[in-house]
Design goal:
Blueprint: H1 3-30, H2 36-46, H3 55-66, H4 72-84, E1 90-91, H5 99-133, H6 139-142, H7 145-153, H8 156-170, H9 190-227, H10 230-237, H11 242-264, H12 266-280, H13 285-291, E2 294-295
Antiparallel strand pairs: 1-2
């Protein structure tokens, strides 16, 4: 891999990041007359949390605080500078909490759920897919191809709604929402950990079941191609045991494309998981993003009220 190629890829990465940041800055400002500070003040006034008199003075003060009263090009330059420093500023919806603090609070929940469900779904789906395609598997195992195909076609959030209705509402086996019981104090205690696992069971199960179907069908397709290769026939001709052929020759080679697809699909997994968090009101990215309204402290403000 040449240095010129690496530089081109790096330049493309920088260009994509700059374009995404620029869209994030300009798109909220394309909405004519949209003022995030004024909208937030109007919400507080409508809910009775703010007196009507003096709103304009407060709006002017907050606009000066966040730099919204400066020319657009100055806001844009400061915004890019803040992004380079990973300074996301304050949340207008939860002022004076900083956006980085909100992300830090939500990140462990989402990453814990994401890593556990992704690895478990990948492992179970890959194993089932390999067994379904293997000619020596029992008939009932090979009959799992249709359920795997069905699960692979169901989105995470729809499967979550079904599980929520059946296991949560009808049978009452799991909580309906939240990350832990109301009133519980977060701490590294066995009781609290078990409470968190109990609340995370349904969101995790909805993601795992859909992932098992997706990875199972992918592995089944790879195994069907691998089983027909010449080296499989040669191994059988030499009297190699079926278990050895399955593990060392067929499954190992079919697994390589699966591992590549695992890395490429992480972005889609995160997107689907956010919708699952919405369904179960799980305290992850959904809770962070639904309340967040970013407004960097310098004139780079990307403020948008939630």
């Amino acid at each position: 891999m040449s240095l010129a190629y690496l530089l081109r890829r790096l330049g493309l990465l920088v260009a994509v990041m700059w374009a995404a940041a620029s869209l994030n800055f300009f798109l909220p400002r394309l909405a004519s007359g949209r003022d995030p500070v004024r909208e937030k003040m109007a919400q507080l006034a409508a809910s009775g949390g703010l007196r009507q008199d003096g709103i304009e003075a407060m709006v002017a003060a907050y606009q000066a605080r966040f730099g919204l009263d400066r020319p657009l090009y100055e806001q844009y330059v400061s915004y890019l500078a803040d992004m380079l420093r990973l300074d996301f500023g304050y949340s207008l919806a939860n002022y004076p909490i900083r956006v980085s603090q909100m992300i830090g609070n939500a990140l462990p929940w989402t990453m814990g759920l994401l890593l556990a469900t992704t690895l478990l779904g990948f492992a179970a789906g890959t194993l089932l897919g390999a067994l379904v395609a293997w000619p020596g598997s029992p008939r009932w195992v090979r009959g799992l191809a249709m359920p795997l195909m069905t699960l692979s076609a169901v989105p995470y959030y729809l499967l979550g709604l079904v599980l929520l209705y059946l296991l949560g509402l009808q049978l009452g086996l799991f909580p309906l929402s939240g990350g832990y019981s109301p009133g519980a104090l977060p701490a590294w205690r066995p009781a609290f950990v078990l409470d968190v696992l109990h609340h995370a069971a349904l969101p995790a199960l909805s993601i795992v079941l859909a992932a098992v179907g997706l990875w199972g069908m992918g592995m089944r397709g790879m195994m069907v191609s691998t089983v027909g290769e010449d080296y499989i026939a040669l191994a059988r001709a030499h009297g190699v045991r079926d278990r050895t052929i399955f593990l060392r020759y067929a499954a190992r080679n079919a697994l390589l494309p699966q591992l590549t697809a695992l890395g490429l699909s992480m972005g889609y997994v995160v997107t689907g998981q956010v919708l699952v968090e919405v369904v179960f009101a799980f305290p992850g990215w959904e809770a962070c993003c639904s309340r967040r309204s970013r407004s960097p402290t310098s004139p780079s403000s990307t403020a948008s009220s939630s």
